[in-house]
Each structure stands twice: as C-alpha cells, then as structure tokens.
Amino acid sequence: MCRWAAYRGEPLYLEELVSSPAHSLIEQSHCATRAKTATNGDGFGIAWYGDRPEPGRYRDILPAWSDCNLKSLARQIRSPLFLAHVRAATHGGTRRDNCHPFVHGHWSFMHNGQISGFDAIRRHMESMLGDELFHARTGTTDSELLFLLALEFGLDGNPIGAMEKAIATVESLSREKSGEALVRFTAAFSNGRELYAIRYATDHKPPTLYAAPMGEGKGGKTGYCLVSEPLNDEADTWAEIPDGSAVKVCPDGMQALLFQPQVLQNAA
Length: 268
What we know:
It contains seven helices and 13 strands. By secondary structure, the chain is α+β, with helices and mostly antiparallel strands. It has a single domain, classed as 4-Layer Sandwich (Glutamine Phosphoribosylpyrophosphate, subunit 1, domain 1). A hairpin with a 4-residue loop joins strand 7 and strand 8. Helix 4 packs parallel to helix 6, helix 4 packs across helix 7 and helix 6 packs across helix 7. It is globular, with a radius of gyration of 17 Å.
C-alpha cells in the first residue's frame, strides 16, 4: 500500500509534510506503521499549485528517502495546496509515468488501494474514455485509469459524484466479469481551489485516512492536512475519516460528506 499527504490552506513549505515531521512522508516511505507494507520504495511524486491554474509536478522512480532533489524542492517550494505520494506498486511497473500524483489540466489525483481483477476489466474501462482522455493516459496503473474515468464522468462539474460513478462502474464491471468485486480506495484530488479526499472499500476494509488542522493564524487554523497516517505522535490531533466518507477542504474549512457509489447494471 502507498502512503500520501495533502494540504490546503495558507501557504506553507512542502517540507512541513514531506520531510520535517517526526513521521514525515519520507520517513513513511521506509517505515510506514499503518500499512500492510512498511516500505514504499517504488517511486514518489509531488504536485503543487502556485500562480498558474495547472499544478507543477515532480516525480521519480527512486525511493523518496534517497532523492536529494526532493528534499531540496520541499525546502524551497511554498504552496497553499499540494499533494505528495510515496508508492508501493500493485499494478504497473516501476517507471516515472506510473508514479502519483497524476495530472490532467488543472486536476491532480493520487490513490492508495487496489482494484482486484483489474486486468480483466482494464480494456472495458478504457473503452469508456473519449479520444482526448484515452490518449492522455501515459502509464499502466489502475489509479491513473480510474482518475481519467472520473474526468470522463464529469469531475469538473461534480467531483464527488464523478468519483462515485467511476467506482460504481468498476464494481459493476468486476461483478460482470468475475462474479465479485473488491475495491479498496483512499484518494485525494484537487482542481487547484478545493481539496477532496475519499475513503471507501467494498469489503469495509479501506486503507487508512486521517485529517488534522494545521498552524495558527490571526483567524484561527491556517489549513488542513489529509494523510494516510499521522505525521506525529499527537494522537488527539488526528481524526480518522470513516469508511464510506468524503471530505472537502476549501477556504471556509473542511466539510464531511457521504460517499455512496450506486452500482450500475450492465456497465460494459
């Protein structure tokens, strides 16, 4: 399982999540404590928003703990909204275009989890994409394809609804092809304004997801952090997001929502 961290709020340096905390994302890349695999060494990536609508991005196949460029960038880049991810591969080889976050236009997306039997439904998922999004795919992961499918289903207009439809489609295809469906899905994604995260699993055993306020400003808390596992030992700070939930972080704060995919019939 992968590990990730995301932030939305007053600008802060990426290192405050990526490298500085006691249990930073770099620390989690070789010593995760709340994942099935303690080591997440199949590459890493960061996406951040600045003055332009599209996010900047840096990815590599090196383990996060061994890339000096990552530490240097995290120390220098200051952003109000960013996503960071360390990968433990389940689908797709260790190559740069399989590393999260994935981006398309002003959207960025990263995922931790799995689609059981993905190879049996991959072609059917691809057939649902229009030409633009089909040709936008550069890697071979289930995560990237799920992101593109959500874009096809209207991520711009209804982010949570589009993700619900994408997951429901995957479940329907899996049941049609194999008679069962197992989807474990914890993801974060952003349009450069709002930050969204989802925790969901068909077997009610989703990967972990936590949220916490960060910093103190004149008006109170300066932002919110969403993570696969807490960045420090202050247990009271981190609230676990329940299974079947979504959160939305915007300038007004953090909002909790239900996430309820409606399984489709004859998805293929």
